[in-house]
Each structure stands twice: as structure tokens, then as C-alpha cells.
Specification:
Length: 365
């Protein structure tokens, strides 16, 4: 699926170091502002232990995990909404993504320059928010002007749209993001047309020092408290630890290193799973001798839509889906055992796919 998370933040907060750890793509990570001028696009594998469990049963020729696209976007500074720094480019790149991963610096290191001279995650987070909101206000102002002209004709629908647009503008002018503005069904199409930057779901990543990777520090705790009412997830990652982990090729070495750090898994694994959830995605599986594979669909997708992810012909000629629950498949140990236990579901076009479904599609083209 062509859904993307964009990594954003001030310069020198660890965005590109984190991107390298996620993708091993070797984006330029340097100790000066705007090291990333053009956005770097990477494809990251979503870690999922269920794939191995299925493969242990089926013994396939190939295992294929699912992926998420991630974009490393140039650092933003105060005034970006007016074109300062790489502001216009930065904001245009954010408009392209479906969700935002906001990296906030929560570590002190005199060797790494901070654009504002000292570490203050709440201030840094608010700088980004303010610039995005300013740009959204500009977008909504232009639309309200257009709606006002249309409303002069006196049509009730145009007047209602204008009143709604003015409410949205007033909401943004309080400094609140668009994602916290309730949108009634009647205005969802209009809202979607605006492509507001602050309407996108957001995940906050506290980039902490190595000693704070497990429990955080005073900076990460201040940020978590500051965003507590946003209904947004906050996770801890030490980009320096992650950059060391990707240098280790041997899995046993990686586990030993993680144990030394009192960690159970790389932080990027948690970040990837959080990105996946942020995009409102779920996984279903196909399992056969040739391949055990994870497939990505939006939550709420029907069986034909899920089939269409494999091939459009599967959706066009969809007849039915044979569905096994992951827990049943693993517990009972085979497809035949699932059928024998009466736990194989035969589902039609209205079936809503659930995370972890193991599916076979019957179709006719």
C-alpha cells in the first residue's frame, strides 16, 4: 500500500540517524542544520513474530513480511510557514504523508548543536506545531474567502459551509491542531479537500540518551505530560543505540548488546509497529508451501478489498474467502486440523477482515 509516515522535527534532533536505523539506507546524518534537503524515502519491514510461527508449521519456500514507506523530511525552523529555512519545501513534503512521526530531542550533548541553544522538548514541539498550524490557518483563510463569495448567492448549503469554515478557522487560531476539531459527516468531504497538515495522526518519538532508553528522563517526561491530552502515543528511542545495533550483523550479538542496555528488542521495532498502527493498518496472512506472507490492509476492509491487495483480479472475481484465525491455526497446528475442528470460516463479500486472519481467496475471472 502506498501509505507513508513522515519523520519531522527541528534540525539536529536525530531524524536522519533514526531513519538510517529504520531503513539502513545511509541517509546523510550530520551535525549542522538542513543536512537533509531532499526527503529520503525508505521502505521498512514490519516485524511480526506471527510470520515465523506460521512458517514453522507450513515450512514454506519463502517468507515475505509486510512493509511501510517512511519519509525523512528536512528539519524545520521557526518561521517555516513564511518560507524561512527550507520551510516551504518541508511543509509541501508533510502534505504528501499520511501520518507524522515527530522526533523530539530529549538528550544533552555539547557536541551536537541545538538550533535554539539548549534542550527544551516542550518548546521544540510547540515550534513545529505552531508552524504547521500557521500554514493550516493560511489554507483555511483562503477557503473561507472562497466560501464567503459562494454564500453571497444565499444558498443554505453555501452558508452552512461558510459557517463551518469559520468555526474551523477560529479553532486553529486558538493554537489547537485540526485533528482535535470534531468534523460532522456533512463536512467530511470539505475537510478532506483542505489537506490540513495538523489533521494527520501523530506519534511523538523522544530521542533520549543511552541510559534513558528504557525508562526515559526528565525531558521525555515533560514532553509526555505536555501532550497527554492529545490522544497521541509517545515512545522512547535512543537513536545512538539504534545506530550501533544496525552495525551488528549477527543476531546473537544484537541480543547480547540489547541485554547490556536492559532492552528486550530494538527501539525501531516498536517505532515501526507504532507507525503501522498510526496509519490504521492491520495484517492478514496467506500461508502455503510456496510462501507465507503478510499483507497490509486498512482497518475495516472487506474480504474483496483484502483480496484486491494481492491482485485486482482477485477482487473483481471474488467468490468467497476461507478464513482461519491465527490463534486457531497455531494452536491446532495445520489447516487440516482447523477444518476438522470446524473453525474454518467461509465468508462472503461483507466480511470485515480482522488482524491476524489467515485467508484463502476463491475467485473467478
Amino acid at each position: 500500500m502506498a501509505l507513508k509516515c513522515g519523520i519531522v522535527g527541528l534540525p539536529n534532533v536525530g531524524k536522519s540517524t533514526l531513519f538510517n536505523a529504520l531503513t539502513n539506507a545511509k541517509a546523510l546524518a550530520a551535525n549542522y542544520p538542513f543536512a537533509t534537503k531532499e526527503p529520503n524515502l525508505g521502505v521498512i519491514t514490519v516485524p511480526d513474530d506471527r510470520l515465523k510461527a506460521l512458517a514453522d508449521i507450513v515450512n514454506p519456500q519463502k517468507i515475505q513480511p509486510t512493509t511501510v514507506d517512511i519519509l525523512d523530511i528536512a528539519g524545520l525552523i521557526k518561521g517555516a510557514s513564511k518560507g524561512e529555512g527550507l520551510g516551504n519545501q518541508f511543509l509541501a513534503n508533510i502534505r504528501e504523508v499520511d501520518a507524522i512521526v515527530h522526533v523530539v530531542r530529549c538528550f544533552v550533548d555539547d557536541n551536537v548543536i541545538h538550533v535554539d541553544g539548549n534542550v527544551d522538548p516542550v518548546r521544540d514541539k510547540d515550534v513545529i506545531d505552531t508552524e504547521l498550524i500557521f500554514k493550516d490557518i493560511e489554507t483555511v483563510e483562503k477557503r473561507v474567502e472562497k466560501l464567503a463569495k459562494q454564500a453571497k448567492a444565499g444558498a443554505p448549503a453555501d452558508k452552512a459551509n461558510l459557517a463551518w469554515g469559520q468555526k474551523l478557522q477560529a479553532h486553529l487560531e486558538t493554537g489547537a491542531p485540526a485533528r482535535s476539531f470534531p468534523v460532522e459527516d456533512a463536512y467530511k468531504a470539505l475537510y478532506k479537500e483542505l489537506y490540513l497538515l495538523t489533521s494527520k495522526p501523530i506519534l511523538y518519538v523522544c530521542n533520549v540518551d543511552e541510559n534513558s532508553a528504557k525508562d526515559g528522563n526528565e525531558y521525555s517526561k515533560k514532553l509526555a505530560a505536555h501532550v497527554s491530552e492529545e490522544n497521541a502515543e509517545v515512545i522512547l528511542i535512543s537513536a545512538s543505540i539504534e545506530s550501533e545495533i544496525i552495525q551488528l550483523e549477527d543476531d546473537e550479538e544484537k541480543m547480547m548488546f540489547l541485554e547490556e542496555m536492559n532492552l528486550t528488542e530494538p527501539g525501531v521495532n516498536r517505532l515501526i509497529r507504532s507507525c503501522y498502527a498510526l496509519l490504521n493498518l492491520i495484517t492478514y496472512f496467506t500461508a502455503g508451501e510456496k510462501e507465507v506472507r503478510a499483507w497490509t490492509v486498512k482497518e475495516g476492509s472487506t474480504a474483496p478489498q483484502a483480496a484486491g491487495v494481492i491482485h485486482t483480479d482477485f477482487e473483481k472475481g471474488f467468490i468467497r474467502a476461507e478464513v482461519m484465525k491465527y490463534t486457531d491455526f497455531v494452536t491446532l497446528g495445520s489447516e487440516a486440523a482447523v477444518k476438522e475442528a470446524g473453525k474454518m470460516g467461509v465468508e462472503g463479500k461483507e466480511y470485515i477482515v480482522e488482524d491476524g486472519d489467515v485467508m484463502h481467496f476463491r475467485f473467478n475471472v
